[in-house]
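Just curious: can you write a single protein's sequence together with how it folds?
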Amino acid sequence: MRYRRIPNWLNLLGLLLGLALNSWLIVDGRPWPGLVFSLKGMGLAFGVYFLLYALRAMGAGDVKLMAAIGALVGWQDWIGVLLLTAIIGGVSAVVLSLVRGRLKTTLFNVGFILSEFKSMRPAYLKNEELDVKSSKALRQPHGAVIAVATVAFLMVSSYMVR
């Protein structure tokens, strides 16, 4: 969190573990459905987060982390992780905006992003503050939000299975 970086070795380890563990699952006497399950999760997560990266809304480490999580949990559970990440990220962004005295600006920026999205234009082109790489941006460590949401989702889903 201090350096706002997600180590590549951690992402690679998660990706390889997801592919290996899910490949080990045997369904109807065939091992391949587990690998396909893992690849679908990885592909969906990578695709969604790569689009956000292309719009400069996420860093590359976030893309790789979500791909690893997708490989571990599969595409269906990854959607749950994504939704919980959005909720926790939204709440923490509001708290961060309040603490820094920037709630009004943040809410305006959200409206601006949505209006630019509707016109199919990247918002960072007209407002440098909306580029994740900008020093003017109000940034929060999204990797930490992803980690909290993933652990919370897995805990709740394991409790619900019982």
Summary: The chain has one domain: 8-161. Residues 8-161 form one domain. The mean pLDDT is 88. The chain is about 70% helix and 0% strand.
